[in-house]
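Changelog note: in this version the structure field was regenerated for every chain. One regenerated record is shown below for reference.
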Amino acid sequence: MRNDNIGDVLCCTPAIRALRKAFPKAYIAALVVRYSQDAILGNPDLDEVFVYEKAKHRPDRNRLISLYAQFRVERNLRKMRFDMAIGMRSAFSWSEAWLVYFTGAPLRVGYEPTNKGDRQFAFFYNRKVPLPPPEQHEVEKTLGLVKAIGILPGEKNLRVAIPEEDRRQVDAFLKNNRIDPNRLIGFHLSGRVAANRWSPGKFADLAARLIHEDEQFVVLTWGPGDEALVEAVRARVGQGVFLFPTPNFKSLGALQERCRVFISPDGGPMHFSVAVGTPTVGLFGKTDPRLWGPWGDGHVALRRGNHADLIPVDEVYQSVKKWIKI
């Protein structure tokens, strides 16, 4: 179980892989919130994915309706009589621990509570794991939970499943715009944390340099509500910049697969790029890249203070340059 954001769920996929390797014939399911489902749907290590919607993600709907829908999902899980349930968050969360407890599983695994207010909920887990070192990456923290039950992980790559229909749409986009994917650089402009965002002006300066000096194509992606930022970048750069709307993360991942390199603020899109195997440059400000940087070899995390906009354009350009020279 992991009831938070999409990047957090992706960081659990090596632990899920380790569980599948250890229990090849087991029925293994995941429970996530609807907002994060694209990170896990289609994962070959899972037999089933259960989804519920947090009330805060549906402000247009009565809170009681959302809570009842969530209860129905939990009730169905309880009827399935799981042998083990794992709360995958890297620090104790009573809301996730409650979901684990409600399954009725005889073995309930999760990180132990350390805050005084949370200790009253400690009984939700009966296999409480001591908190890992705070400087560990999120992937290592989730792997610590499976290690606690005797499972040694092998492959540690993030993984995500991309539907063929989304790949076909990206292929059509590239063909219609006569874009050579071997010279395609992807930018994601949006970021949930303001201090991790790069300014449109810097994105525009980087795009112009890549297009005019290195003859690359640049494709822009963005999150809901940031259309004005994208238009500002395109207006400043002109030809060579293309816009690709992504209604969901699966379509974003299909595009990222075709990019030579992808640049993104810390967040779900950055982790998605890593999961599809594209070299990734992560931009960081407030968030510590030791904990949340793009996972694995061949990626770069840049940080120059508590705001991503302190990162110079040239530093990002030099990070991208090494990939387009290959």
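Spot check on this record: Residues 148 and 299 are 29 Å apart (CA to CA). The two ends are 40 Å apart (CA to CA).
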